[in-house]
Amino acid sequence: MDYLTDLRINRAKRYLAETEERLRDIALKVGYSDEFYFSRKFKKEVGVSPSDFAKNFKKRIVACSTSVTGHLLALNVMPAAAPLDPKWTPYYYNAYRTQIKSHLKLTDPYTSRPFDANLDEMVRIRPDAIIGTDQLRPSVKAKLMDMATTFFVPTENVGWRDQLRMIARFLDKEDQAELWIQRYEQRVRSAREQLDAVLGNDSILILRIYGQSIHAYWNRGLKDVFHRDLKLKLAFRSESSYNVPLALEQLAELNPDRILLVVCPEASSRAYWLALQHTAAWRQLKAVRNRHVYLITSDPWFEYSAVSIFRMLDEAMLLFTGNCPNALLDSIHGDS
Q1: Contact, 57 vs 76, CB < 8 A?
Q2: Full domain range(s) for residue 25
Q3: Is there a single domain that holds both residue 196 and residue 312?
Q4: pTM of the model
Q5: In this model, does residue 217 exceed pLDDT 90?
Q6: Order of strands across the sheet with 149-153?
């Protein structure tokens, strides 16, 4: 029944967002004969009424960064414009490129292009609100404030939960933020039990190959999911983000039970990875001998938002247990 409810609510969202059909007709299309029961069920599952969802969905809100897009989607807000790129933001590009009507150019940290390159397009959109981060340059912030009501999310020393709550307060969607956080915490408790049974006391090391070198890698998202929430045993950890070069001898000393590995897409990085696999030092590592090396990509592991954190949790479950729960973000936003 939960699965069927997910199907119905998900399809109802599509109708509410993309058509002008009456509520009664949408209820019938998704399998509810009583539109009033449908409305109550929708509000219980989503946090807002169907009419409020449709109204908020169609507001012209511009997201100035990928992380802001991830927060907005967690609040059931589809931005009218957001940075999208098939290479660097494949999840958002593939899932939402038809629903996000205006595709902004990807800027720092993905490319060296300044955000100013998007200003003309944003003027054309005539947004109702603009949400960016406090990392935008003061001159850019001033121009955005002239266009529409703005909110700049603080990034330093502010966790994703508080960032989500701040954006929710700006958009008057606090209930949706708390619902998302509550569901995430429930998923964490379930994941922790399952992972304890599989991993036991295994140590985990996250590595990044760039060029001709190996780096121990750590960022805010990994810290939140692996250390704070899942409480996994880490072979190398710091309180701050890092990208520390490691010699093969140092890697042998750490000798983790499991390795998560990011190989940068440059040709030199890929070539080094191919060569590394044939070296005795690599093949003698415990994780390699036990076939516990997991290749991961920058998406979602390098982003920091409510959606990316949830996706990291599900990815960890899939990597370590072979099972992935029906992702909350898929049952809310995607086609089931």
Answers
A1: yes
A2: 2-55
A3: yes
A4: 0.79
A5: yes
A6: 102-104, 81-83, 61-63, 129-133, 149-153
